[in-house]
Amino acid sequence: MLDAILDQKRQELAGLRQQRLPAPPPLRPLALRRNPGSPLRLIAEIKRRSPSAGALSSALGIAERARAYERAGASMISVLCDQEYFGGAYEHLALARRATSLPILCKEFVIDEVQLDHARAHGADAVLLIARCVSPQRLRELVAAARERELAVLLEVYLPEEVPVALEAGAEIIGVNARDLQTLVMDAPRTRAILAALPTDVVRVHLSGIQKEAQISELARSRVDAALIGECLMREDDPTDLLQRLVWATAPAGAMLP
Known about the structure:
The chain is α/β, with parallel strands linked by helices. The protein is 38% helix and 17% strand. The protein is built from 10 helices and 10 strands. Helix 3 (90-99) links the parallel strand 4 (76-80) and strand 5. The chain is globular, with a radius of gyration of 17 Å.
């Protein structure tokens, strides 16, 4: 699946380079790192469909859903920009940004600097970079290019051996995906182990697979800083009640676990 997505991305680059971009808006600061005893941060995602889940709810438009996420207590909004497999668009970034005051994450399969230009121009404050999508050298170049554009970088890993690559590239925010992008299989124990082993100066983000308050409560008792919530929210025509319940579960009960 990942190979097919990356092939599609390569085909899209020429078209992206031909498009005239709007002037980028001012950046919004991220606040994903949490202090001991403070609530887990939740990143609520907007995506129309996915290879694993198929079509998701379209009852709310991009702006309406973004406003619902903000009202329910999300700390950040992630917007899928891939059109072919996820029904997204860079324009969705601008719609979500204009509708809320939250920072916006561009979630895309980035292999080229022109994608960073589109993310920044359409209102992203941060961009997802995936270690498996490019070589270590290219990853370092893309991290540097994102910072030149003043975009924060959420660097995604899946395997333990990708963590040193991410750190060498200069990652300050590392997300661990519970889903294998090649097979779409979930592996929660592996994800927890990698997150627990990350250096203490890195912001730790759990990606994929979160659906219930109990999972959020478990993460809140760990040293994970944030969790990205996607498909379970997108299955809801109105995600407000579910997201509020997840937000209520973010406060750790007692001291954080070592």
